Amino acid sequence: MSTPYRGRFAPSPTGPLHFGSLVSALASYLDAKKHHGKWIIRIEDVDGTRCKTSFSKQITDTLNSYHLFSDETVRVQSQHTEMYEQLLSVLRKQQAIFPCNCTRQSLAQHNGGHPFVCESSLDQPHSWRLKTSLAAYQCQDSIQGTLRFTDDLKNNCPVLKRKDGYFSYQLAVVIDDHQQNITHLVRGADLIDTTAQQLHLYHLFGWTPPSICHIPLITNHSGDKISKQNHAKPIQDNNLSTLLRALHYLKIDLESPLSIAEALSLAIEAWDPNKLKGMKHLSLEEQDLHFI
Ligand SMILES: [Zn+2]
């Protein structure tokens, strides 16, 4: 028997849920339910400087108003920092990471990137960065096809723990997905760029990565992702027409369902990731501009 499907949606509570996030939440939910699997909400609040508890509640309330309920207790990342610390020390013993005292100014000549292993002192305030690697990875993405990552780890040393003590999304997301036995990730195409780092962390920990696929990103007229940074508006709770418009971007067009519950169950039947094959972006249509 194959492993039971476990999927998740993992929003950061830096603002209320917007239209683009609803599309992502739905894609992960529909894929999980189509496979008779579990769908779990996780609050990614490792960045204590940007996340607020009030947004966590607001986001889960909005999801629930669309009948998107977590099949297990909602996991909150900030409650697991001890585990992140423990696993960071595993990487430290492997000498896969290094301390870094570099400042924003000192990295300005590298466009803010960090393409080398620096000589830094543990006595000064320091972050922990992942060492560069020549390792190449690939993944079989059921929507985007084969993704090959050859140079992704050669010229960048991403931060795993910041100078201010907060852990990075990159580290936390890998540890949590593994700890929660997540088998399938369905997420936005903007995360393709960080996939190699995550596969590398799985490799260093000796864990098997989940199956990963990337849905097209909903973009505005300038081609930018609809995001909180771009001031996307919060969506209304419990609004059938918003749900139908979100499903439209997943290539599901339903004929006048009577309720959110009915729309969701029809959408589970209709969900077919093949209809999104190879698409990395979808422009927001004229009638949906009020969402941004
Ligand atoms: Zn450095």
UniProtKB/TrEMBL annotation:
What domain of life is recorded for the organism?
Bacteria
Q: What Pfam families does this protein map onto?
A: tRNA-synt_1c
Which Gene3D superfamilies does the record cross-reference, listed alphabetically?
HUPs
Cross-referenced InterPro entries, in alphabetical order?
A: Glu-Q_tRNA(Asp)_Synthase, Glu/Gln-tRNA-synth, Glu/Gln-tRNA-synth_Ib_cat-dom, GluQ/Sye, Rossmann-like_a/b/a_fold
Query: Mind listing the UniProt keywords for this protein, alphabetically?
Result: Aminoacyl-tRNA synthetase, ATP-binding, Ligase, Metal-binding, Nucleotide-binding, Protein biosynthesis, Zinc
Q: Show where the Glutamyl/glutaminyl-tRNA synthetase class Ib catalytic domain sits.
A: 6-111, 122-233
NCBIfam families per UniProt: PRK05710.1-3, queuosine_YadB
In which family does this protein belong, per the annotation? Belongs to the class-I aminoacyl-tRNA synthetase family.
Q: Which PANTHER family does the UniProt record give? A: GLUTAMATE--TRNA LIGASE, GLUTAMYL-Q TRNA(ASP) SYNTHETASE
This chain belongs to which protein, by name? Answer: tRNA glutamyl-Q(34) synthetase GluQRS
Organism of derivation:
Marinomonas primoryensis
